[in-house]
Every structure is written in structure tokens, then in C-alpha cells.
Amino acid sequence: MMTGDTPPEDYQGFPRERFSTFAIESTTLDDFEGRRVPVFVARGTLDRNSAPENTDATVVELLRRDREHVIHYLILDGLDHAFRDRLGEGHAEEVLARFVDWAARGPSERNVETVSFAAPVQMQDTIRVLGLPPWLLALFSFGIGTVALSRPASRQQTRARRARTGIGVVAITVGATTLGLWWGVVSGVRESLPHALCGTLAGLLGLCATRCIKR
Fold first, then answer.
1. Total-model pTM
2. Phi first, then psi: what are they for 43, rounded to 5°?
3. What stretch of H or E contains 114?
4. Is 83 left (phi over 0), alpha (psi -120 to 50) or beta?
5. How far is residue 15 CA from its own chain's centroid?
6. Where do runs of H (alpha helix) occur along 151-191?
7. Which of 33, 55, 70, 139 is an S-S bond match for 43, by CB 3.0 to 4.6 Å?
8. CA–CA gap between residue 157 and residue 154 (Å, rounded)
9. Per residue of the chain (215 residues), what is the pLDDT tens digit?
């Protein structure tokens, strides 16, 4: 679309020039052609706006084209495009401080540095829902839901049946949603809501299947 004969004036909510100036009319490699200004590159491993592999390839090509070109490549493990971690906390100031320190020291070396900001294993140990680990709350909720839905009640006990059904639905939904949220936070904070919805949907489908089997 953007490379056609009649590209749109706006694309994805931005003016056409935003994309054409750095991705179509010229690339990063083109902009550095014949220049030896020291380069500081920082990118996060959770970047969803641009593929980390593209940055890797660009840095490798810059290093390959000019063996004297000073480049510092900072890989930020656990940060996204805006330098936020999995919990949404920003680290842009820390990245800027590293750049200022690098520039003040007088860049003279070509190197690659990796800094870790988050680890999924640690997060799983620290996340709490109502003071409980997510897996324990989910297990507790599923247990309540199973007991509420499996206890028999005669047709004359209409109120009791409705109450137990309501408790069972709520408990199983809470359990499924908790697992979905936990999964989403561990995978990336911006993906938490879709995962929570998927967990809730899975719980409701399981509930419907259970009710159909009982009938």
C-alpha cells in the first residue's frame, strides 16, 4: 500500500511521511552510509512494534560494513518498545542514563551489552490475588464450583438449585479468569485482558459441557 503508485495520505493514524522517510525513501543502513558517528542502539526483547530480529540484522550489517565504526548495542531483556517491563513499569530514564554515560565517556569500542529487567519465573512466585498464589485461588474456586454443581437437589428445592448453580457458575468463572490473568501477566501485561477473556470463556464452555453431561 505505502509503496504503490498512489500511497494514502494517512496510514495507521499517522501521516504518510512518518513511514516513507525512514522505511521507504531510505533505511537505517542508507542513513549511516559513509558516516562514522558513534551509534548507540537500544531495543527490548518484548518489542511488538518492530521485530527485534530487524534490529539485530541492522547492527550486524553496520558492524560488517565498517570494522572501525563504533557501535554500542544495548539489549534490554524484559522490556517492550517503550522500555516498559511486563508489569507496565517504565525504564526509559534508566536507558537514557546509560546513553548519557556512554556518550560522556567518549565512545571508542564496539560492543554488545545485555541488561535484564524481568524474569517470568520470578514473577510467577511474587504474583498474588487476594493474598493467595493464583493457582491456589483458581484451585479453590474450581473446588467450590464443582461441589456446588454436583450436589443433588430435588426439583421441589428450586431456590436451593438456583443458588447452587449461581455459586458454581461464579466460582468456576473466577477460577478460569484468575488463570487467564496469571497467564497474561506472565506473557506480557498488555496481553492480560485477552488471556483473561480466553480463560473465562474456557471456564464457561467447561461449565456448559458439565451441565449437558449431567442432563
1. 0.53
2. -150, 150
3. strand 111-116
4. left
5. 27
6. 158-187
7. 55
8. 5
9. 556 667 677 766 777 776 677 667 777 888 888 888 999 999 999 998 888 888 999 999 998 988 888 999 999 999 999 999 888 889 999 999 999 999 999 888 899 999 998 654 444 445 555 566 666 677 777 677 777 767 655 555 666 767 777 777 777 777 777 766 666 665 554 444 555 556 566 656 655 655 554 55
At 17, which amino acid appears?
E
- The pairing of beta strand 14-15 with beta strand 39-44: unpaired
Would you mind telling me the total number of residues written for the chain in this entry? 215
Distance CA 175, CA 203 (A): 8
What is the C-alpha to C-alpha distance for residues 84 and 90, in angstroms, rounded to an integer? 4
Question: What integer pLDDT is reported at residue 80 of this predicted model?
Answer: 92
In the sheet that holds 39-44, the strands lie side by side as: 39-44, 71-77, 111-116
- Taking CA atoms, 148 is separated from 76, 137, 145, 151, 175, in Å, by 48, 16, 5, 6, 14
Q: Calculate Rg over the CA atoms of the chain.
A: 26
90 — phi, psi (to 5°)?
A: -80, 145
* Residue whose entry in the numeric block shows the C-alpha cell 558492524: 63
The one-letter code for the residue type at 132 is L
